[in-house]
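Q: I'm writing up a methods section and want to include an example of the input and output format. Could you take the sequence below and give the corresponding predicted structure tokens, formatted cleanly so I can copy it straight into the document?
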Amino acid sequence: MEKLDFSKELYEFYEKNKDNKIVLSKNEIHKKMNKRFSFNSYSLHNKFYEKYEIIFGLVNGLCFTKDKILQCGKSLSSSQEFTYDFLPINILSVHPTFEYSISKSEDTHKILLNLKSYEEIFNKINTDLFEITSKFFKLKEEQIKKQERLKEEQRKEQERLKEEQRLKELQVSQTNVLSELDKDGNGEVDVVEGNDFNTLLKKHQKSIVEVDRNYVQQFVKVSSYLKTKKGNIQSIFNSIKDTPNQEVLNEYVEILKGEIHTYNLILFNSLNMIVSLVEDDMITFYEIHEMFDTINMFDSKHEKDISQKLTNIGDGLESLMYEIRDMGNQISNSIDELSYVTEQSNQQLTNQLSEIDSTMKVGNLISVINTYQNYKINKNTKSLRG
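A: Here is the clean output for your methods example:
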């Protein structure tokens, strides 16, 4: 903090009172400091003269510089030094023997001397000095407040710039994520497009009814589940741009990728369930059917509830995201246990899709599923090592 300079006021005071016998000039103080075999209050403090720019002093050992009051006395050793920033000073009395003590009240330093001679002589000096030091104290208080305000303004500005930079970096991350998950930039998350499941179901409806009419209804429920799941994925994707920070963004992206993986798994196995039924591969059909029944795939109430919550969500989005993540993990882990997939089953699915002019590539879908599974395995392995 910049020091206040009261040299002008103190020089004016000195010029006004220099003829007073208790006021000492700079040179007089210097002589007292260098006087050998003397017990005056300045004799042990010649270092004050070298260290500070003394303006004037008093016979009781007080020295005034432009911003300090120096306290000299024969009771102090030469290695000691007492200095005070200006405070309101009230000198009650003064005596050349310099026997005094200092006590501090709430807002005033009082210099108390044992003897009261010189008191009348010093009345005027006392008044003037008190006025100078009071003024100094007031200005110093204002300076401190100004400095504190400046520091607070600087702190707020630094916080503003830091927040501005954080938001810029977050926006870049959000844009990168949105571009990664929506490569064609149409505003929709990239999942398997088309209506292949329904098309394949309609193609083989008669064959399915011949086996069991109830299976048609169950397949319709699976179709409804897939449609709702796809809509929920899009809702999560839309929420990415509103994430408040990088940590939440990372969590939502992980959840979204997990949901896309779950969707791909359900779609792949749903298609295979139709194909295995029409190909009379009942073991594969029931393996998938039982697993779907276990995870309530034929009752899409949970996914519809999620959809409703995502539509009407407020501050509870974060907790809902974790609910979605946990359910998605449960479904994925269950479906991952299915072991029916073979080269033959993949070829059968490819043939069936080609008959409905599907653009879906079975190999590509399997590759996407495997890539995500490997990503999760590697991530979990790193987490355990860490």
